[in-house]
Amino acid sequence: MTDTSAIAAELRRLLPRAHAPYSGVCVAAAVEGANGRVHYGVNVENAAYPQGVCAEASAIGAAITQGTSELARIYVASSLPGLVWPCGGCRQKILELALAGCEVITFAADGEVGHQTIEQLLPLGFRLQPRAGQDA
Ligand code: THU
Predict the structure, then answer these.
(1) Interval between CA 78 and ligand 1 midpoint (Å)
(2) Which residues are catalytic?
(3) Which CATH number goes with the domain that contains 45?
(4) Cα separation of 27 and 24, whole Å?
(5) Which atom of ligand 1 is nearest to the CA of 43?
């Protein structure tokens, strides 16, 4: 059973590691594989602004590097007040590896928690490959 509060605490611990000198917005994300492993990432901005990488993309890179390629849950926390949801590009990146019904769980500093599935966040998403366990 996933310890969601432990993941939320780890995301909060990682927020200061974000490299966000331009926006000042620190984001930490975790991706949980179907294998039960959890991989973390933070946003990494760049002086050439479009080259910045979101926390979700960092976490997905860590997951793929460690051999986790089927995602069951995504977790997000940020330094902003309120809930932060993945940007459009990250929704597409998540969809690429998501099991059907993959949950996105986002934590606000005040304790509010938001839940959506990737299908709710990216309806009619573009795919070239069937999902694991599905024909099409
Ligand atoms: N950002 C993320 O890392 N993840 C999100 O879900 C939303 C936005 C980053 C991108 C940029 O470094 C900063 O937050 C402000 O947009």
Answers:
(1) 8
(2) 56
(3) 3.40.140.10
(4) 10
(5) 3
